[in-house]
Every structure is written in structure tokens, then in C-alpha cells.
Amino acid sequence: MRIDILTLFPEVFGPFFSTSIVGRAVAAGLLLPRMVDFREFTRDRHRKVDDRPFGGGPGMVIQCEPVFGAVEAVERSAAGNPMRILLTPQGEPLTQQVVEELAWWDWLILLCGHYEGFDERVRTGLNPREISIGDYVLSGGEPAAMVLIDAVVRLLPGSLGDQMSAVDETFSSGLLEYPQYTRPREYRGMHAPEILLSGDHQRIAAWRRQQAMERTRQRRPDLLNPQDAGREDTDAS
Ligand code: 6GU
Fold this sequence. Notes:
alpha/beta; Alpha/beta knot; two-stranded antiparallel sheet; elongated; binds 6-chloroguanine
């Protein structure tokens, strides 16, 4: 998968693309990231990317020119059909279902904003899919781009050493993950559940299903009853 990240801060992505699962995907050629600096597509001498909002108000607005310039240059650089994505708290929530959809594409273009956001004509003129990573405000889209990329990369065939771990987890099953234990059997008086040491794989699987269900009921009942999601008065515990 090719991913072009359009940003004012390309340097923040360095260690992200060279570490852990994402780093391995890059090293293996599964992921081809490229950082593109909006500032390279300014026309004025001072390489200015933003200006004060028409109508007044606080903050600065990222101008059209560097954004259209960067998107068009990136799209001219190769043949193909990229998905344009704008990271913004106003976007559609990023869920595992959205991540699974994005993982089918072979080319993503991610636009990371800052300040008070982009000139609205970036939206109307480039028609990107707008995605948010949650109901809180970040100072820029870069951490959101990393979140999206991490979630997508682990679905690319060959990116996880053990492909089982991609399917067995929270949100692909619709449930939270069951508790895990490893050696030692006892630590500071706390014991791993005997059943996990029993060798009885059927009972272990049943225990894990029950634990996942109970944990989901307690912590995230909205995942079990999507029709109640967002309601505050449905806590059964
Ligand atoms: Cl994608 N960007 C910013 N700036 N803030 C956010 C976000 C994105 N998602 C949640 N908050």
C-alpha cells in the first residue's frame, strides 16, 4: 500500500515508520510511505501556508494553494486511484469497519491540518473522505494519521508475524479481548487462572469467550447493544 502524508510537520513521522509492526511493513515493502510538506507548494517568498480567517476570529486558516498543489503533484507522480482522506474532528468516526474498508485500497493520501483548519474549499474542491479518531480535539492531524495507518497496516497480508492475532481481537469479534497471562504462574501472590494451565483447549476457549463477553458487558455494553449506543441510562451493572 502506498501512503502519501501531506503535512506541515513531516519530521514527526520518522520513528513511527521505522519501529515495530509499521516499521516491519515498511522494511518488507508492504507499506510505501511518503511525507510531503505543504510548504514545498507555496508560491510566495516566505513560504506562507496560512492566513487570517475572512470575517475575523482567532487562529489561522491553511490556504488552498499549498494543499491543492500538494495533492495534484502527488497524484501526477503515479498512475492509480488514491483515496483522499482529510483528518479532522468533524469527520466520520474511525471504526474497525472503516479501517477494514481502507485496507482494501492500494493508495491513500492523508491530509493533516493544523491551526483552525483548512480553507473550506479544500473540502468542496478536493472532496476528501473526512475521518475523525474520536471526540476530543488534537492540535494537528498527524497523531490521527498515525492512528489510522497503524490500524490499517496490521490488516495488510503479511504484516503480522502471526496472522491469527489479527482476527482474534477486540472489535473484529465485536467483543473486548479476554485477559491474557504468561509466566510466571504466580507473581506477588497473584495466580494465573488454573484453567489456562489445564491443557483442555475446549474449556479454555469457552472460558475466554465468557470472559470476553463479561468484560464487554461491564465496560462497553454499547458494543453488545448498538441500538443503545450513546444513551447514558442503560448501565445494567
Ligand atoms: Cl483527525 N484531527 C484533529 N485535529 N483532532 C482530532 C481528530 C483529528 N480526531 C479527533 N480529534
